[in-house]
Amino acid sequence: MSTVIEIDFFNTFLLKKIRSANFDEVSAFPGVAYPGVLDVTGIASTDYSEKNYYIEESRIRGGYNNVSTDQGARAYLDEENPLQQNRISSLIYSGVYNSRTGVNQTNVFSVGDAITKTIDPVFGSIQKTYAEETNLIVFQENRIHRALIDKDTIYTTESGTQTQAGAAVVGQFVPYKGEYGISKNPESFAIYNYRKYFADKNRNSIVRLSNDGLTEISMYGMRDYFRDELAALSSGNTSQTFTATYVSGGATTTTLVTILTSSITSGQNITPGMKIDGQDGYITYVAVNGLNTEIYYSQLFTSTLSGTITFSYNTKSKVKGGWDIHNKNYVVSLQESPNQVTTEASSFSTLGFDEEINGWVSFFTYKPNEMFSLINKFYSVGKQASSTVNSTELYEHYAEPAANNRGVFYGTREPSNVTFVFNPQPDVMKNFNTISYEGSNGWEVVSYVSGFTGQDPNPDGTPTYVQSNDDILSIKSYDEGSYVDANTGYTLRAGFDRKENRYVANLRNNSTAMAGEILFGAQMSGIKGYFATVKIETDDTTQLGGPKELWAAASNFVTSSY
Q1: Among candidates 298, 300, 336, which has minimal Cα distance to 316?
Q2: From CA 178, how far away is CA 146, in angstroms rounded?
Q3: Looking at the structure, do residues 429 and 555 belong to the same domain, yes or no?
Q4: Closest C-alpha to 445, from 538, 522, 511, 527
Q5: How many domains does the chain have?
Q6: Are 88 and 82 in contact (CB under 8 A)?
Q7: Does 371 fall in a domain?
Q8: Cα 109 to the chain's mean position, in Å?
Q9: Same domain, 426 and 557
Q10: Which residues, at least 6 apart from 311, have a Cβ–Cβ distance to it below 8 Å?
Q11: Are residues 430 and 515 in the same domain?
């Protein structure tokens, strides 16, 4: 048997082995490559044009008695007792790279040179390094150091320092003052100018490293929040599982199974790398086909699937960090589970820190995979919550095209909201009767509750205690609360009304009866308490995606008792 193959150039090499559609390694005919090219689904294609194949040419330019090609230098080490060392707190560096002269020794690690530097392993493993001009900043789990690059520091007898050129590539490691590290979350690192931001989960802190040293910025009004949220994140891998309904496929002779897309819980994703319980291998590719989701597996199913299928995936909590160049904010996203598993709002919280006010300014409703700034724009990469597969998108924040898109992240619109507290005359018991605000049309009150009065025995007789407080019915926005009276034909307002460019509404009580109360709930207006917590947010219809402003809010009250 013979064949003729046209080659593109001399000295190409034969593909000795190929993998079949079942991922089994088989031999190919010498000089002829297997025409079936495996695509991302693991299914072989019969199109010869998808890839060029070449045969081996043993002589330079194919000339008679010319120099024979070889495999080049090989790394070789002969040890009687070969041992592997995992030096988690050490650095190693290669030879130099110079693009101007063409010198490239990045693959050279000479054992004759001192090319390793070790930090005290008691501070944990090295998680990240960052080169800043002539300094190398090294982030360990529990400590941060800096070292000089390509120069030495000599300490003089006068207790001063003298810097001179030296042979050391990386000099002495000097720790920053403060018991902080980056834990095992190097993904939280972000930088702007000489300020570096990162999370220290081990100490429940968000930290800034700048010219004045280490500062725990999570202390600025958010200490309790970060203490609870960071402590709730897992330190190692955790197993996530969810189920879906089998449709077809899954026989022992295939690597394809189809499930009903609507059977996947909203916010959960099926992605490559997951496993199907009871099967060997893993998912290689996922595609949505109409009402169904097609799942390609890395190998044949060991048993026929039917009914409900359970998927499992090992995950690790993430603390994603990025710098928002547009607003000059450090943005951090605490993610109990990554986007590859779920986009549910309960699985993450994203918020920003502003240097101008030295405080945390806002929560955000998006869950990013990555965040970064380019020139004067801020970008993030995330997944649409409505998608059942891991299809991520690049999103430009603060862009204002012709169609208003405020509150839309990765194709999902979420209302903007503000929570504040009314607490005039703190030592006076008050009856709050009305609420008003200055700003744009389109705001509604979704929550207005008084402070708790304390724990009392449960009225149903069970041996438990309940917290008592007053709340109201929600207040619709100016547009959504309007209706036409059937008798008079006039337009009336069931929510906010507008008077002299100020939106006002009465409070309608919605409280349950407490012991000793005669009038309660809808029988009375307003709520009673020393203070009230209010949440106001944008509605679903008024100038959707357009600008909304909220300048001030107030509540009219009368004194109940001192």
Answers
A1: 336
A2: 13
A3: yes
A4: 538
A5: 4
A6: no
A7: no
A8: 36
A9: yes
A10: 241, 242, 243, 244, 270, 274, 275, 276, 277
A11: yes
Please tell me the distance from the alpha carbon of residue 261 to that of residue 389, in angstroms, as a whole number: 10
CA-nearest of 319, 379, 382 to 351 is: 319
Give 514: exposed, middle or buried? Use CB within 10 Å, 0-12, 13-18, 19+.
Answer: middle
Alpha-carbon distances, residue 235 vs 84, 201, 217, 335 (angstroms) = 26, 9, 22, 12
At 298-310, the pLDDT tens digits run 888 888 888 888 8
Pairing of strands 238-249, 318-324: unpaired
- Tell me: do 427 and 556 sit in the same domain: yes
Q: Which of 369, 327, 329 is nearest to 348 (CA)?
A: 369
Segment (H or E) for 230:
helix 223-232
Cα dist from 197 to 168, 180, 365, 383, 513, whole Å:
29, 12, 21, 25, 50
Burial letters 156-194, b for 16+ CB under 10 A, else e: eeeeeeeeeeeebbbbebeeeeeebbbbbbbbbbbbbee
Q: Residue 356 domain-assigned?
A: no
Most confident of 21-30, 335-344, 385-394: 335-344
Domain co-membership, 438 together with 535: yes
DSSP string, 457-523: E-TTS-S-EEE---BB--B--TTTTEEE-TTT--EEESS-EEETTEEEEE-BB-PPP-TT-SS-GGG
Which tops the pLDDT comparison, 264 or 530? 530
The verdict on residue 290 lying in a domain is yes
Residue 31 zone, left/alpha/beta (φ > 0; ψ -120 to 50; rest): left
Q: Which domain covers residue 157, as residue numbers?
A: 119-175
pTM over 0.85: no
What are the C-alpha distances in Å from 259 to residues 247, 264, 290, 304, 313? Answer: 5, 9, 11, 14, 18
Residue 135's pLDDT band, with cuts at 50, 70 and 90, is: confident
Q: Which of 244, 557, 260 is nearest to 422 (CA)?
A: 557
Residue bearing tokens 């006076």:
428
List, for residues 417-428, the tens digit of each pLDDT value. 999 999 998 888
Say whether 171 sits in a helix, a strand or coil: strand
Residue 123 within a domain: yes
Is residue 541 domain-shared with residue 439, that is, in the same domain? yes
| Domain endpoint, select from 315, 334, 363 | 315
Residues 61 and 132 in one domain: no
